Amino acid sequence: MARPFKSGLYYFPFDVVSGKGIKRIEAEFGLKGFAVAVKLLQSIYSQGYYMPWNRNVEQSFSAEARTGYRFVSEIISAALKQEVFHQGLYRKFGILTSEEIQENYFDAVKRRKCVKANGKYLLVNPALFLDEERIEWENKQNFRVNADINPEKNQNFAQSKGEERKEDLYNTIQYEPEQKNNPQPPELQEVRDYAGQNKLSCNPDAFYHYYQEHGWTDKKGNAIWNWQRAFIAWDKRERIYARQRMAAGPGSSIDKKALDEYIDGQFT
Fold first, then answer.
1. What is the mean pLDDT of residues 73-78?
2. The whole model's pTM is what?
């Protein structure tokens, strides 16, 4: 008998609950609010990278969480306000998701043989995490449109000036196809130009010198066939670890071995 198709995750990284949005929900609603927020994330990841949300789902979720649906509704409103969930997709499609949730999901399933992706609900490009031929697309034509959705800024969903989210640039970045017969390491200026053209925020010199020192091979000694894809993975890694450092607070350290394994895992 064929193994049943699994769309969700068996577990999700706990650091996703340590961001500013979740902390503010905990500050406003206490540990009960924190628990509801974590259970919402658990429900989303168990299904994939988004979850439909309506009155029936809200009441069912409230019963399972053993709390009043009005309280859950308040948590949802706060989570939208704090950008734990994407306001635009919630209003347009009635779903709970976010850029970070989708990044975590596609990173977690990058080894699967087949991954389903609905372009209507995407904020990130799954092709940055796994080969295009392993993506089973639905409504792919809607992806570009949804990548441009921005939440309306009104009194109910106000954003502080210092907390505006960085625009997701990954879904517009292009990189050269793999040339496995003749891999060509880049020049330093070529890497710098690529970073500027694609508005990548990481240090291109650090990327270049790291792989120049390692002979443009990964930890397993395999040649890097596509340095542009590796550079995009490097930039994404920097963003994820910056979030972790911010969540952990001053004096926190980063596991260098885990960091390097994460980089290699993006393109091997």
1. 93
2. 0.55
